[in-house]
Amino acid sequence: MPRRSLFLLITAVALGSGCPRQQPTPPAAIPKPTAEEVKERLAKEFAVVYLILPKTDAPKSDNLLDELKPLLDEQANTRMETTGSGYLRQVNLAPVKDVEALGMKQKLGRVLAYDPAKRALLIEQGVAPGTRETWKDAAYLDRQVTARKARWGLEGKVRTVSKEHPGDQVVCVRIRGDFLKDDKHFLLGVADLRPKLAALLYGPADKRSVYGMEIRDGEMATVIAPVKDLEALTKKIDFADVLFYDTEHNVVILEVPGKVASKK
Q: Would you tell me how many other CB atoms lie within 10 Å of the CB of residue 257?
């Protein structure tokens, strides 16, 4: 019998005799992350983009999320939330592992500042991108965001008051304090604070505006005018602590101690 035929016969006999075949080892199944695990991961990979919109009569950010989503590290299990009004929007988005890289590749506008600790970028929309060396630090970002957020929800009131006073003499005021925690003390606080704010203004009493005192984001918000010198005005305040003021954006943030505004 030829040698090749003998080999085939022996192989056939071996196979037919029940010798077990070696089966390939299936790949280990990758466990699907739970909803809680996805939530925890996204919390660690959240980035914050503050976007300064172009100065127009009706600022819009309709396509903002569509423009930012392609920059995320993946397109499934994503989170994107937008807040803000006027000329500043805040977008929380995830997953973003490298916020600095996102700032370099985004096409929305120019990065003005970067805060690595807060994983935050400040971007001016519609302005040609600059180099990484032009980015300012966390202190600049924090000041700009604080000042611009103080105007959230007040732009309409600013326009109304600006019909009676020069725009550069109109100031947005935010007031914090325990008196805001219930309606009774809030009303007492309004009655007490309105004349005190008016007393800080200049010009005839009937031309001084303290407009629209209401609660916004847990704070009292109002617009006052006319203010010739905001820094000088803050030095005259004796009924509250001045937490922050900014002469570029004409805003001031105060805190009133106690349940009801001080009776000084």
A: 13
